[in-house]
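Figure 2 data, in text form.
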Amino acid sequence: MLNRQHIDPGLYRDAMSRYAGHVQLVTTAMGELRRGVTITAACSVSDNPASVLICLNNTNPKNEIFFRSGIFALNTLGAHHQSVADAFSGRTSLANDDRFDSARFEMLVTGAPVLADALAAFDCRVIDIKEMPTHNVIFGEVAAVRFSEKHPALIYMNRDYHAL
């Protein structure tokens, strides 16, 4: 049996704030309902079949739609998307519909909202969900991909945005 040493969550978050992450907007839809969340916890899983994973807070009841819809779009944000990142992060007090009105969204294959000018967009079908204490890890098989012109990336580090 492992002897587990528990790390203080605040200390852990402070250390993770030094970890640079590419800012992403993950979106989903179910019927008329839409939801979008700014995240940095996303990555490629495989190129065959093309798949990605995202991590979402499972203590926020508004995120339940991600766990039930069966679809999501992972939208890679550029430096020019900082206001979009703020809108979907909760840094602003915008209502959900106003958040989606802050940018142009389209549909590709699954019906998840795709940011029209995302640096890259991965339209995904959920293939697995792993529940962890505070977050769910959602695996998606990529049904469609699209990318735009090259622009500087939006990075989050030391609790602030940076361009790369």
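Caption note: The CA atoms of residues 44 and 52 lie 4 Å apart.
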